[in-house]
């Protein structure tokens, strides 16, 4: 059991702290947002993350998980301090380090003698050195330990990681951080801080490139009348390529891939290196969204102005309430610009800051009077809707399923003019 302080209780901080406590450590979390803090103290997770709520309640009950607004008390006994604050994009694409550096400044005179400061947030290459300078204490080591948590799957990703990456110039400090995770029995890689920081950016950028590629191949399949499911499934069976992370869709989004691909290309540019493939993946991802708008226009016979579009799904993917850089929202924005009226439903998104979207209380309500139904997030509840009932509510019968979650036979039999993005375009060309 180790004494741990976690600074920041956002997605990364909340997951890291709650699950470190589940491993038996004593964890104190410092959160500055008083509303969030109060919720956490009362055992309520401010975000939707499957399975995490139960671990939160368990930690509070066992007494080895505490939330406070006071950094001094959170740090007083901590041998390990995890920095889990955001690193959003600046205008030039580089990562904004002000929250991380602010946290480092604040902890500098309060941390226990010999404490190890760990960057969990995704931080630019060279951040460990920068933090050491800011903290300016000989007794403190800074270790990079990037997270690889997918929103919606974070509990599983934390408890069964593919690998744990630790970057430090001090072997003893690296080993101490590795020991925090011993009970997970995971593969641990110990390297220098810059390499650890870069592993994180390279992972996210590679995954983003993989998705841009499969989405491009799916568009090509549609155009030539091939089945993208068979093509992507077929090449994914080559174990050198792999079939994981090949689900086609309306483009990738969220709080990580867009920000991290921008940060990596921005870093490379600053060193006169061109990351042309990552740049291309970013550009291709914009095309993925424009393609959805183009398809919808085609389905509605060339006219989007004053069309009422029902949208199912606003979160950037299923099993999260997060709409940051959501392809769904971007596509809605593009449609609003074209004069569409949108009524949307997402099971976990309760409010939205985008003029022109009307939120509906149920999936069915969103479809009332709609000329077309557009599915943008792969929530299972959408595939459970009864085709006949939905079609009765709609004014038109056109459906564009960008996640390929509807049973096409059932919906077509019920009278839907269903187009599934990344499905066989042959069906699209025939109709
Ligand atoms: C991503 C990484 O997967 C995590 O390993 C990493 O720790 C995290 O970023 C981070 O940097 O914090 P996340 O953004 O939560 O996790 O979600 P993903 O499941 O990776 O999905 C990202 C985007 O790709 C979503 O828009 C999703 O819909 C899309 N996606 C994902 C697909 O279109 N197809 C797929 O097969 C998988």
Task: Tell me about this structure.
44% of the residues lie in helices and 14% in strands. The protein has 431 residues and is of the alpha/beta class. The strands form three sheets. Strands 3-2-1-4-5-6 form a six-stranded parallel β-sheet, sandwiched between helices. β7 (164-167), α8 (171-179) and β8 form a beta-alpha-beta unit. α1 (11-22) packs across α3. The longest helix has 32 residues, at 193-224. The N and C termini lie far apart (64 Å). 46% of the residues are buried. Uridine-5'-diphosphate-glucuronic acid binds at residues 122, 147-151, 204, 207, 211, 245-247, 249, 252-254, 256-257, 260, 316-317.
Task: List cofactors, ions and other ligands.
Answer: uridine-5'-diphosphate-glucuronic acid
- Average residue-wise pLDDT: 94
Number of strands: 14
Taking Cα atoms only, what radius of gyration do you get, to the nearest Å? 23 Å
The major beta sheet can be summarized as: 6 strands, parallel
Strand content: 5-15%
The portion of residues assigned to helices is: 40-55%
Unreliable residue stretches:
424-431
Query: In DSSP terms, counting alpha (H) and pi (I) runs of 4 or more, how many helices?
Result: 18
- Coarse shape: globular
Lateral strand order in the biggest sheet: 3-2-1-4-5-6
What structural class should be given to the helix and strand makeup? Answer: alpha/beta
Map the helices and strands.
Layout: E1 3-7, H1 11-22, E2 26-30, H2 34-41, H3 52-62, E3 65-68, H4 71-75, E4 80-83, H5 98-108, E5 116-119, H6 127-135, E6 141-144, H7 154-159, E7 164-167, H8 171-179, E8 188-191, H9 193-224, H10 228-236, H11 257-270, H12 276-299, E9 308-312, H13 327-337, E10 341-345, E11 357-359, H14 363-366, E12 372-375, H15 380-383, H16 387-393, E13 398-401, H17 408-413, E14 417-420, H18 425-430
Parallel strand pairs: 1-2, 1-4, 2-3, 4-5, 5-6, 7-8, 9-10, 9-12, 10-11, 12-13, 13-14
Helix pairs in contact: 1-3, 5-6, 9-10, 9-11, 9-12, 11-12, 12-13
């Amino acid at each position: 059991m180790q004494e741990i302080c976690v600074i920041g209780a956002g997605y990364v901080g909340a997951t890291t702290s709650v699950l470190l406590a589940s491993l038996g450590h004593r964890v104190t979390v410092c959160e500055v947002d008083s509303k969030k803090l109060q919720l956490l103290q009362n055992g309520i997770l401010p975000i939707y993350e499957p399975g995490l709520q139960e671990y939160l309640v368990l930690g509070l009950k066992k007494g080895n998980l505490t939330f406070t607004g006071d950094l001094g008390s959170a740090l007083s006994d901590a041998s390990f301090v995890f920095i889990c604050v955001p690193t959003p994009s600046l205008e030039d694409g580089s990562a904004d380090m002000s929250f991380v550096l602010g946290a480092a400044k604040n902890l500098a005179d309060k941390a226990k003698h010999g404490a190890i400061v760990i960057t969990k947030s995704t931080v630019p290459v060279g951040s460990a050195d920068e933090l050491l300078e800011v903290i300016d204490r000989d007794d403190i080591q800074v270790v990079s330990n990037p997270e690889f948590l997918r929103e919606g799957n974070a509990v599983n990703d934390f408890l069964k990681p593919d690998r744990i990456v630790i970057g430090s110039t001090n072997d003893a400090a690296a080993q101490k951080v590795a020991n925090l995770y011993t009970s997970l029995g995971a593969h641990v890689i110990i390297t220098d801080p810059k390499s650890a920081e870069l592993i994180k950016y390279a992972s996210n950028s590679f995954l983003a490139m993989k998705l841009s590629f499969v989405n491009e191949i799916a568009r090509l399949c549609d155009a030539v009348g091939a089945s993208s499911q068979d093509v992507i499934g077929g090449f994914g069976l080559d174990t050198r390529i792999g079939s994981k992370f090949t689900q086609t869709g309306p483009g990738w989004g969220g709080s990580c891939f867009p920000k991290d691909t921008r940060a990596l290309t921005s870093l490379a540019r600053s060193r006169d290196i061109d990351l042309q493939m990552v740049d291309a993946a970013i550009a291709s991802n914009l095309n993925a969204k424009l393609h959805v708008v183009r398809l919808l226009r085609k389905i509605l016979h060339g006219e989007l102005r004053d069309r009422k579009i029902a949208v199912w799904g606003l979160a950037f993917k299923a099993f999260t309430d997060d709409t940051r850089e959501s392809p769904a929202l971007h596509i809605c924005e593009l449609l609003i610009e074209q004069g569409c009226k949108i009524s949307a439903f997402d099971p976990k998104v309760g409010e939205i800051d985008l003029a022109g979207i009307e939120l509906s209380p149920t999936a069915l309500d969103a479809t009332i009077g709609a000329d077309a139904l557009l599915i943008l997030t792969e929530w299972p509840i959408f595939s459970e809707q009864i085709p006949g009932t939905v079609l009765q509510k709609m004014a038109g019968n056109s459906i564009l399923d960008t996640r390929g979650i509807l049973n096409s036979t059932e919906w077509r039999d019920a009278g839907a003019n269903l187009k599934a993005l990344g499905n066989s375009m042959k069906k699209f060309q025939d109709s």
